[in-house]
Amino acid sequence: MIETSDIRKNLKLQIDGDPWIVVDFQFVKPGKGQAFTRTKIKNLITGNVIERTYRSGEKLEEAYIEEHEMAYLYAQGDAFHFMNNQTYEQIEMTAEQVGDAKSYLTENMTVEVLYFNNKPIGITLPNFVELQIVHTEPAVKGDTVSGATKTAEVSTGFKVQVPVFISNSEWIVIDTRTGGYVERVKR
Amino acid sequence: MSNVSNAPIRAYPFPDNLKQLLITRHAINIKIRSFFTDAVYVEVEAPCRVKCPGIDPYIDAIPAGNGYYLATSPELQMKRLMALGIPRIYQITHAFRSNEHGSRHNSEFALLEWYRTGTDYWGIMDETEQLLLYLMVGDSDDQDITLIHGVPFQRMCVDELFSERAGWEPSKAWDEDRYFLDWVNKIDPYLATMPVIFIYDFPAPLSSLSKLKDTDHLVCERFELFIRGLEIANAFTELTDPLEQEARFKKALRKRRMMKKEEYTIDEKFLDALKGGIPACSGLALGIDRLIMALYGYSEIGMVQAFPETRL
Fold first, then answer.
1. Predicted local confidence at residue A147, as pLDDT
2. Which of residues 12-51 of A touch B (CB under 8 A)?
3. pLDDT tens across B168-194, in order?
4. What is the mean pLDDT of chain B?
5. What are phi and psi of A55, to 5 degrees?
6. Which residues in chain A (50-69) have CB-CB distances under 8 A to chain B?
7. Other C-beta atoms within 10 Å of B47: how many?
8. Is residue B159 within 8 Å of residue B172, measured between CB atoms?
9. How close does chain A come to B54, measured CA to CA in Å?
10. How many CB atoms lie within 10 A of CB B142?
11. What range defines the domain where residue B163 resides?
12. Which CATH number goes with the domain that contains B270?
């Protein structure tokens, strides 16, 4: 058990059997009165974000989340298949569990699969991934405005804004935290 | 030839805007001093290290060795000075409170505190409004000028506030746990939407060192000032009855004992001063760091202090 004074960003809590992560928190103490910690927490399974207020000294239960390094294999319908790089055990996750990460998954990409109570609940991607452009319109001749961008589709079907000089079948780096283009890479 | 370089010196790990901020704080402190000097207040110096910190169930003092504590407030000493017969005193000092850390709390913080005879908490409220207007006008382009549009600032009593926002009147059906939880969950979010508001007439159990209202003993003559939900100041018509004061200290001590908190010694010298006669007076304590946050739109107390705990 931990106490309210241990609350910090990214602390994982077990509440009513579910794993939650602290997104934000604030110490509050109205006029010479009792102290509280107001938190904004995100459910690690549903992604639902709620606010919850704890009285100072209240006991909280930490959620233990395990991370396993796995390779993404393939998707079949709604099922995403991964293989544990150490044990070679294969697992299946639903599109809901994979969430927005599916925009960046390509075959053999290494990800961290999060486990809570021995069940996979989600994945953490590398911060940067390399993806290949499958479709983008050629640059309009004479469009030399610095910072001009256009839409490009990458192999996963994800659409991203890229500089106008990027062309079909080139590889680019995308920041998975923002979904934004970072740079062009030669492969 | 001068050896002084004009090149900016990067004083890691200070934030870039700290230099400007210190100039702003300096300007605010000068204006505060000029406001009180013009109103014929005498600046006094209460100690930062005391033997008997104020006794409040939820305010914890930081031990300073040899039986001393860092002062949680200059209140008891300043009131003792009122017995000297100076009608108006103020000071800018630092106060210290244990276990208060967060975006709006730092264990050490700058405090403006003042006391005067010849008025009650309403007079202090008017004076606070004048001080705010004085600090708000023409000081800097960086200020949140929308605050000033609310003049005269709104005033609302605690029971009305709770009736509207939480559906009950705390003074008439006191429930401490419910009160503070509702404050945090229902009152705070509402106050955050208000530019400047005075909340007055707190329930009697929260009277601390304030006088109960003659016409309604369920409430006390206390108010607090909030700017965009940030608690800036707390004021009382001061309790000057020594017997009532002693009873309240004892009650607060019993509560601290129940909560298994350190039990401080009752400040007998303060009680003696009350017995000898402290004139009827009223006073206010204002957090200068938070005032700067509110006026200049900073979200964290650590952004307006040169040396928050994280930079020590």
1. 73
2. 26-36, 38
3. 999 999 999 999 999 999 999 999 999
4. 93
5. -75, 140
6. 53, 55
7. 12
8. yes
9. 12
10. 13
11. 18-311
12. 3.30.930.10
What pLDDT, on the 0 to 100 scale, is given for residue B9?
A: 53
Chain B residues near residue A28 by CB distance under 8 angstroms? 102, 104, 184, 188
Which residues of B fall within a CB distance of 8 Å from A30? 180, 183-184, 187-188, 231
Show the domains of chain A with their CATH numbers.
2-60 (2.30.30.30), 66-124 (2.40.50.140), 128-185 (2.40.50.140)
Per-residue pLDDT tens for B72-83? 999 999 999 999
| pLDDT over threshold 60, residue B291 | yes
A10 with A42: CB under 8 angstroms? no
Give B257's DSSP letter. Answer: H
For A66-82, write each residue's pLDDT tens digit: 999 999 999 998 899 99
> What is the tally of structural domains in chain B?
1
Whether B100 sits inside 8 A of A30 (CB atoms) is no
pTM over the 0.90 mark: no
Q: With residue B287 as reference, give the H or E element that holds it.
A: strand B281-287
Q: Say which of A31, A35, A53 has its CB closest to residue B234.
A: A31
Strand partners, A22: A41
Pairing, β B108-117 against β B281-287: antiparallel
User: What confidence score (pLDDT) does residue B1 get?
Assistant: 42
3-class DSSP state of A111: strand
Which residue type occupies B262?
E
